[in-house]
Amino acid sequence: MDTNNDDNSPVLLLVGSSGGHLAQLLALRPWYERWRRCWVTFDTPEAVSLLAGEDLVPAHHPTTRNVPNLLRNARLAWRVLRVRRVAAVVTTGAGVAVPFVVLARLRRIPTVYIEVYDRIDTATLTARLCRPFLSAMLVQWDEQRRQYPEATVVGTLL
User: Fold this and answer.
1) What digits encode the pLDDT tens for the residues 91-109?
2) Which residues lie closer than 8 Å to 49 by C-beta, 6 or more apart?
3) How far apart are CA 112 and CA 13, in angstroms?
4) Distance CA 29, CA 35 (A)
5) Which parts of the chain span the membrane according to its record (predicted)?
6) pLDDT of residue 5
7) Which of 14, 108, 140, 142 is the one with CA 20 to 30 A from 85?
8) Alpha-carbon distance 85 to 139, whole Å?
9) How many CB atoms lie within 10 A of CB 7?
């Protein structure tokens, strides 16, 4: 993590596990490319390649039901949110998102969750955990509003 951040302009924090979660965030490129941004994802060869030239903060994995890594990522979220001037946190999940969303919301930083496109009939665990801390819930299918009536349908990202 670059803690010697000379540019104190606001940054968009894009948080997501690698693989499909990262792919869905990358699909937002036309929206986020004008913003200064920082990515939080796993330090996998695929993620590093896809985010070449981007500001990348590696998160701890695996996160699925792994309490030690949840705590490590909570410490990481605390450091990132303290050191950087984060304008908003945008995430597609999964587990890595929880500490970033919770701590950002406690710091009054807007938080946006985009439910993944392949969970139409049931809510993801990460969305259920993050939901009380969200400024906005976005979904990709009209059918997902059965689980999230307050959500805004943005259409499919992939």
Assistant:
1) 999 989 999 999 999 999 9
2) none
3) 10
4) 10
5) 12-32, 86-106
6) 47
7) 140
8) 27
9) 8
Rounding to the nearest 10 degrees, give the CA dihedral for residues 14, 62, 48, 74: 40
Rounded CA separation 32/124 (Å): 25
Name the nearest CA neighbour of 107 among 81, 132, 83: 81
Helix (H, G, I), strand (E, B) or coil at 78: helix
Write down all domains in the chain, each with its CATH number in brackets.
11-153 (3.40.50.2000)
Residue type, 142: D
Which residue type is seen at 11? V
Backbone angles phi, psi at 114, to 5 degrees: -110, 115
Q: Residue 77: what pLDDT? A: 98
Q: Give every CB contact of residue 149 below 8 A, 6+ residues apart in sequence.
A: none
Sign of CA dihedral 57, 61, 65, 71: negative
Q: Is the pLDDT of residue 66 over 90?
A: no
User: ∠23-82-86 over CA atoms, to 5°?
Assistant: 45
**Does residue 112 surpass a pLDDT of 50?**
yes
69: tokens are 């890594």
Is the pLDDT at 4 greater than 60? The verdict is: no
